[in-house]
Amino acid sequence: MKILVLNSGSSSLKYQLFDMEDESVMAKGLVEKIGLPGSVLNHKVSGGEKIVIDADIPSHAVAIEMVTTVLTDAEHGVIASMSEINAVGHRTIHGGAISSSCLITSEVIAEMERLVELAPLHNPPAILGIKACAEKMPNIPMAGVFDTAFHQSMPPVSYIYGLPYDYYEKYQLRRYGFHGTSHRYVAARAQQLLGNPPESKIITCHLGNGSSVCAVLNGLSYDTSMGFTPLEGLMMGTRSGDIDPAIVTFLMDKENLTPEEMNTILNKKSGLAGISGVSSDMRYIEEAALQGNERAKLALDVFARGVVRYIGAYAAEMNGVDALVFTAGIGENGTAMREAICANLSYLGFALDKEANAQRGVEICISTQSSKLKAFVIPTNEELMIARDTLELIE
Ligand code: AMP
Fold this sequence. Notes:
By secondary structure, the chain is of the alpha/beta class. It is 38% helix and 19% strand.
C-alpha cells in the first residue's frame, strides 16, 4: 500500500510518499512560492540526491501536476504510474465538529468551506489542494486529517468561554484547539513508553514556531491551550498567545487601528519576535541572549514561563500528571529551553537527567530514574499519522 500525504499551505505544498508495508518514506519534497516569483520544487528520494526544479508554478493544481510528474519520472521518480498510489491523505486544519479523520466527500469539502470563516489562512489552501487532487487523480480515494479533530473529546468545561452563551450557539464560538495530529501522535507514543497503563495523565508540549500544550487524559484530549483560533495560549514565534482581551480595544483606539491591522499585530508582530526585536526564531534569540541582549533574555523567560504555567494548570485540572512530552522544533532541539522549563517542576517530583537532556532531535527520556514525573522528548511525525489514518480509512 502506498499513501501520498499532502500538506497545502497558502503558497506551498509539502508531500511525502509512504510505503505502508514498513511505513518508510519513499520520497518527499516541497513546492514553494506557488503563485509568486521564484517558485520551485525541491524533491528527494530516500537515500538519494535532492533535486531542485525551478518552474513557473501559478497554482496548487500546477504544483500537484508537478509532484505527480516527478514521482513517476524515470530518473528521479519512485513509482511507475500514479495508479500505484492507493490513497491520498490531506493535512486539513479546521474541521469544526468533525471528530476524527474521514474520507473526503462533497459534504466534507462543503463543511471545510463553511469553516473558512474560522480558519481563513488555513482552510482555503487545503481545499485548493483537495480539489486539484480530485481533478488530477479522480479514482484515488482521499482522506482529511484535521488538526482540530483530536480535541473534540474535550468536555464543555474545557471549551466554553466565559462569554454570553448565545455566541456559542450562534457562531460556534468555542475552544477548538490545533496541532491535534501532533499531540495525538506523541501522546500515543508516550503511553507506550509508560508501558500502556490503563489510565494515564500526560501533558504534551508542542513547541515550535506555533506552540501549544495539551492535557491528555487516558489517551484523549482533555484541554488544550490554543482556542477558537491558533492565536490563544502560549506566546509563539510571532503570535501573542494569551493577553488581556481589553488590550485589543485599547490599542485599536490609541493607535487608530483597523481590525485587520490589529490582527496582524497579534499574529505576525508579537510573541518572541515582538518582545525580543531580534527574530521569531528561537536559535537567533538564544544567540542574542548569550551576547547579553536583555530583551532576548526576557523573551526566553516569558516563553518558558508560559509553558510552566500551562503544565501547572493541566496537572491541576487532571489532578496529577504521569508524563510530560516535548516535541516540535523547540521541544525536540531546544535543550536550554527544556532545562529552563524543567527547572520549575520539582514540586511535581520531577528531576531532570541533564546528560540525556543535552541530546537534540531524538526520542529520549530526560527524567532521572527516580523522578516521580517522567519526561520524554518525542520527535513528532504528523505525516506518518496522516498516512496511518488514511490507510485505516481505505481499509
Ligand atoms: P517548528 O515550527 O516545529 O519547525 O519549529 C521551529 C522552531 O524550532 C524555531 O523557533 C527554531 O528556532 C526552533 N529550533 C530549531 N532547532 C533548534 C535548536 N537547535 N535549538 C533551539 N531551537 C531550535
